[in-house]
Structures are given as structure tokens and as C-alpha cells.
Amino acid sequence: MSEVSETKPLLDGQHAIVTGASRGIGLAIALALGGAGASVTLIGRDRTTLEGAADRVRGAATGARAVAAVADLADPAQIDRAIAAGRVAFGPARILINNAGIAKSAPFGALALDDWSAMLAINLTAVFHACRAVLPEMTAQRDGRIITIASTAGLKGYAYTAGYCASKHGAIGLTRALALETARNGITVNAICPGFTDTEMAGEAIETIQAKTGRSAEMARADLEKFNPQRRLIDPKEIASTVLWLCLPGSEGITGQSIAVAGGEVM
Fold it and tell me: Distance between the two ends of the chain, CA-based, in angstroms?
């Protein structure tokens, strides 16, 4: 009788870092990577929520490993400390998911400088710092996957979101430039651009629409869904599946891309 060999998970033991991992898209990504065998460092601001998310990742598959690393991504020193904590736990990073993001909406003339600066700090500058923190080890091992969760707002414009659009366009520009610099080092750098997604951020947008227009929650939600030709909000698991695909063997030729997951929305 021949022995049945166990098949290792596709990302067995690979260290993945996910920012903004305590909820929404980030949590869905952490669960998908953990379920595929990766050891996941979850980075976020709220320790209680983050620890709960790490517990969920550890329960996603037999032997799944995860640690929570608390950091305010507006502070480069805290980014470095969080990534270093993950490195101590799981070794050099092979996967970096820049997911953390914030959005503020306002007419351009009413957009506060503080809100503009905050969106650039989290949506763009934090991406820069996180990439800088992991690139030396990825270059040394000649293997790495950097994926930034951008937005369709990085591919087109939306009214009343000038700061968000600017920061996401910047993140895509950084992705394209870095992909060219790392193309011969075994590293791929890509962006995923979700349309309006069924997360807490979308819920906040719906509340804002309600407050400003007096419409019902159902009507406000429909205002967001109409951007998607499928007339729905994207499920965070769809973003996670796209991330997982880009991390698996066979995706080596995909780099410098901005992949829209938006139900056919025209860019």
C-alpha cells in the first residue's frame, strides 16, 4: 500500500503583512492568506479589535499563525516597529499588503487641509514607508509580493473626493514606478482597485448621504451601487481572492498593474 503524502498549503510558512487588518477588506485578506498557509502579521490601530482579528486568522486553518502589531500608520517609526515585530515572529516578509486607508468627502472648496494631509499620510505616505521597510529583505531573497489596495478613485475622478482621489492616484503611480525598479529582483508590485465595497467605510458613506440628502439608507446605498454595472457593492472576499491569486505561484508575470474589481465600471 502506497503512503498518501500530505499536500502543503500553497503559502506554507510565508510571512504576510497586512495593514488595516482589523476589519473589512484587510480582515478578509488576512483570513484568505492565513487559510492558504501564510503566517500573518496584522497591523492596525485598535489593539482589542486587532487581537480579535488575529484570533480569527488563527482559527481559519489548522496550524494557522498570526500576530497583532499595533501601529498608527501616520507615524513612520510605528510602521517600522510593527513590521519588525512581525519579522521577529515569522522571519523576513514575502508578502506586503498595503490595505489601510481613510476617506473624507467634501466639496473641494470645503476640504480641510488637515483632512487632505491625513488622507495623503495614510493612503500614500504609509505605503511608501511600508514598502521601504520590506524591500531590502525581499530583494535579498529575490522573492516578494507587494500589493496595494487602491481604489477605482485611483483610476478616475469622483466629485467631492479630491483628497481621496489624489492619494489613490499617487498610490497607483508609486506601484507602477516601483514595479519597474524591482522587475528583475523576483518581486512583483501591483494595485487592486475596488469599486464601492460592502465595508464599514461604505456604511459611513451611506450615513453621510443620508445626513446631507435626507434619503433613506436603502436609497443612499443605491446611490453607491449605481456606479457598479452589476448594481451591487463588491464583497470584501472578492478583493481577498484577487490578492491571493497575485501571491500564488503562476502570477510572476503580473507586475505594475492596477486591477479593477468593480463589476465592469468604466474607468
Answer: 58
Domain ranges of the chain: 15-195+236-254, 197-233
Dihedral class, residue 214 (left if φ above 0, else alpha if ψ from -120 to 50, else beta):
left
pLDDT in tens, 171-230: 999 999 999 999 999 999 999 999 999 988 877 778 877 887 888 888 888 889 999 999
Q: What distance in Å separates the CA atoms of residue 53 and residue 68, rounded to the nearest whole number?
A: 8
106-123 per-residue burial string, b: 16 or more CB within 10 A, e: under 16: eeeeebeeebbebbbbbb
Pick the catalytic residue: 65, 164, 166, 192? 164
CA distances to 19, 30, 49 from 70, rounded to whole Å, are: 10, 15, 10
3-state secondary structure of 242: helix
CATH class for the region spanning 15-195+236-254: alpha beta
- Whether 164 is catalytic is yes
In terms of Cβ atoms closer than 10 Å to its own Cβ (0-12, 13-18, 19+), residue 136 is exposed
Q: Is the pTM of this model over 0.90?
A: yes
